[in-house]
């Protein structure tokens, strides 16, 4: 059913659960996993000229760390192809999925920018609206004592076509 899964990550806390769900799904279907992090070009362009190179470097470092986290969370033996791109995150993620002929994009519902939207983060919403393949959005569970265990992560995931 799924041969190639793209895991879109920005390294935020809310995406860690999406990474776990995507890796579990890929393992169950013996799928190839591609982890992608996008440096948001609009953040760089909106910064003062004298800070742009430093900001770009900082964002690239964050992207590399996010991809390293995906690799760390993967079961031993699972090879993860990683990529960092610069541009508009939703557009770059969808384009990457097209280029590698992905069967699924997995992402968190909120990223580093927090709650920009009522239900989905603005990037997740754009991916759902424009993706050429199905999108699995995974929300972060509440951090309370009675929150569902991590093994039930797939039960709270939502999917869009």
Describe this structure in words.
The protein is α/β, with parallel strands linked by helices and 161 residues long. The chain has a single domain, classed as Rossmann fold (3-Layer(aba) Sandwich). The protein has 5 helices and 6 strands, in the order βαβααβαβαββ. The chain has a 6-stranded mixed β-sheet, sandwiched between helices. α4 runs parallel beside α5.
In short:
By secondary structure, this protein is α/β, with parallel strands linked by helices. It contains 5 helices and 6 strands, in the order E-H-E-H-H-E-H-E-H-E-E.
Architecture blueprint of SSEs:
Blueprint: E1 4-8, H1 13-29, E2 32-40, H2 41-46, H3 52-73, E3 80-87, H4 89-99, E4 104-108, H5 122-130, E5 135-138, E6 157-160
Parallel strand pairs: 1-2, 1-4, 2-3, 4-5
Antiparallel strand pairs: 5-6
List keywords for this structure.
Rossmann fold; alpha/beta; 6-stranded mixed sheet; single chain; 161 residues; 40% helix
């Amino acid at each position: 059913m799924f041969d190639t899964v793209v895991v879109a990550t920005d390294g935020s806390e809310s995406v860690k659960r999406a990474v776990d769900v995507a890796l579990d799904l890929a393992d169950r279907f013996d799928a190839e996993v591609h982890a992608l992090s996008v440096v948001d070009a609009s953040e760089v362009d909106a910064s003062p000229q004298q800070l742009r190179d430093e900001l770009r470097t900082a964002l690239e470092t964050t992207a590399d760390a996010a991809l390293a986290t995906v690799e760390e969370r993967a079961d031993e033996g699972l090879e993860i192809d990683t990529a960092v791109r610069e541009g508009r995150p939703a557009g770059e993620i969808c384009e990457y999925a097209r280029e590698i002929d992905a069967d699924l994009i997995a992402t968190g519902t909120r990223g580093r920018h927090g709650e920009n939207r009522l239900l989905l983060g603005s990037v997740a919403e754009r991916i759902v609206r424009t993706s050429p393949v199905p999108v699995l959005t995974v929300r972060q569970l509440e951090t309370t004592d009675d929150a569902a265990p991590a093994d039930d992560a797939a039960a709270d995931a939502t999917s869009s076509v």
